[in-house]
Amino acid sequence: MSALPPMTELYRQHRRRALAIARRILRDADEAEDVVQEVFTRLFSQNVRFDGKAAYTTWLHRILVNSSINSLRAKKRRGRLESPQGSVVDPEEIAVGNERHALFLEGLEHLSEQHRLVVTLRDLRGYSYPEIARMLRLPEGTVKSALNRGRTRLMAHMAAVAEGDREDFEPAPA
């Protein structure tokens, strides 16, 4: 394994191509700039090692494509949580949305710490599975499993509260 060339040199040589790749995938110049900055920052701060099996450009291209796709996925998840801008919103829809949001936040409090962290990082913050695994120092499979269990319990709690069976999910008295 060989080390990367100095980061400023790598950035100078590949920035334009990196931006073109990210723009093509994201179709948003600002978002593309953010992804490129994040990739180069991550390469620099995490002392990433290049294995030499491919050219630097091929290796960097793959990292940029994956990061851009992850950004798109995160943007889609965030979009589901936000209302469309500029649209007229019915006050009843706002009330229902606020109630749903309150149920969601209440449901998060009934999850174990691990499940709450994984659901928050993935569904609210938009982090990828590998990023969450690194942050929590867990295997990626554990992250996926915890996310599935957390979502399942969260939905069960929200359904029970909506049907009036709240006591089934209240924490036991201390």
Sheet bearing the most strands, described? 2 strands, antiparallel
- CATH fold-level label of the largest domain: Rna Polymerase Sigma Factor, Chain: A
Indicate the structural class.
mainly alpha
User: What is the count of β-strands?
Assistant: 2
Given as residue ranges, the uncertain stretches (5+ residues, pLDDT < 50) are: 170-174
C-alpha end-to-end distance: 54 Å
- CATH level-two architecture of the largest domain: Orthogonal Bundle
Question: Measured on Cα atoms, how large is the radius of gyration?
Answer: 21 Å
Portion in beta strands = under 5%
Number of helices, counting only DSSP H or I runs of 4 residues or more: 7
CATH class label of the largest domain: Mainly Alpha
Question: Mean pLDDT score, rounded?
Answer: 78
Question: What fraction, in percent, of the residue positions are helical?
Answer: over 70%
Strand order of the largest sheet: 1-2
Q: Write the CATH homologous superfamily of the largest domain.
A: RNA polymerase sigma factor, region 2, helix turn helix motif
